[in-house]
Structure formats: C-alpha cells, structure tokens
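Worked problem 6 (solution included).
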Amino acid sequence: MITTILWDVDGTLLDFLAAEKAAIRTLFAEFGFGECTDEAIARYSKINRRYWEKLENGELTKPEVLVGRFREFFETEGLDVTAAPAFNERYQVCLGDTIV
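Solution. The predicted structure is:
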C-alpha cells in the first residue's frame, strides 16, 4: 500500500529558474525598484545559492535565508534593504503564481 508520494517538481515539472526570474522582475516593478536585468538576477542567484548552502551546513536558519538573501542582494544593487522582509513575503506568493 502506498501511503506517501513525493514529487520533485523543480526542474522536472516546473522551470524554477524561469519562475524565479519572472517573480523577481514582477516584484521589482511592484516595489518601484525599476528594471531587473539578467545581470542583476545572476548576482541574486549567486547570493541565493550561497545562502542555501549555509542552511545546509547549519550556519543559518531558513528564516535567515529567506530574508537575508534579499537584504544582501538589495545592498549590492543599491536598493532599500528594509524592503527585504516584505519583498520575500510577496516573492513566496508571486513565485507560486508565476506561470512560465
């Protein structure tokens, strides 16, 4: 009898990188940050990857990752870092709503 089914949708059923890019671009417009270039998204991706590695190594908690990655990204882009918590909250919703 099967009691649990796990789906690995990232990169299989969902193009996560495309959804991530679309969500970030949508939120840049929503937050009045201007255009988010491919280069800026590449910088975000490096920061994001480093934060998730720190979580895997037990150096950060998940809440620290979720907001911290945007704080650091906003700092590198010269944006208001205090917007990071609200941006992350909207990002979580927007990521799931984005169809690519």
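Discussion: The chain has one domain: 16-97.
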